[in-house]
Amino acid sequence: MLDIIRQPWSWYMGGILIGLTVPTLLLLGNKKFGISSTFRQICADCFPANVSFFKYNWKQESWNLFFATGIIIGAFIGGTLLTNPNAMRVAPETQQVLQQYGITDFSKMLPTEIFNWSSLLTLKGFIFIVVGGFLVGFGTRYAGGCISGHSITGISHLQLPSLIATICFMIGGFFATFFILPFILSL
Amino acid sequence: MGNIKYLIVGLIFGVLFVKSEIISWFRIQEMFHFHAFHMYGVLGTAVTVGVISVFILKKLKLTSLEGQPIDYEPKVFNKGQVIGGLIFGVGWAITGACPGPIYAVFGSRFTVFIIVLLSALAGTWVYGFFRDKLPH
User: Any residues with CB less than 8 A from the CB of B127 and at least 6 apart, and which?
Assistant: First the structure.
């Protein structure tokens, strides 16, 4: 049993369980699955600085912070006790593209050449880690949600704005992949 | 105490994020290069299951365990979903992580992701600060 859990899970297993999070949270307490809201809550809690956007009853939404804490603990378990004993299997075409930019270690979830503490001090690492994170935080709040809030929850409730947001997420991602990443990966 | 159940759902979710490899920067790259079906499969299945289950919950007019009716405040379209959506998309391709995976990557011991998280908080804060001046 443990051996089966340790193998990477298939896309349908992952997809079904993620999809079931929507009704689970609704049934537990009429909660809307949406993770980027936690960023707003942490800002409201720690650095409200009299910005009106951060003056709201965030304590009422604190369930979301418990949810995020759970994700961190669960991911720790998934990455240690239940970790896949074998290396990742990245599509050969993707490996080929990335090898041109000096990425050679495909065994972990992330390219360790880019995402490590010492690369943080290089321009390349700074863009991937700091600028990238900033765009995620800024963009999700501006869009009013992320993959969980718009693409999964919003579309589950048949919201057209969420479908539009999702299409824009994808367009932004394709644009960055083909026009921005080749440049920053070469730095 | 009532919030502990959400911690448990989050915990299961964190395991799931790691095990289905959606926290992987490489999987996101495969998706945007159309080199693999994996992420499209995960997201497509998740949305399908979500749509069906919300339809059933509404049809049966179920209430939550705490007795609230299950409702949804409709999203209102504004330009933010387009502009913010495009900006997030760029950040998603660069970091290989949307907000949930940011927590999960950090939890799976890529400790440098605490900096991605802090940067995302900074991005959210800057949005909040300039909100009134941005087109919506």
Answer: A53, A137, A138, A141, A142, B84, B134
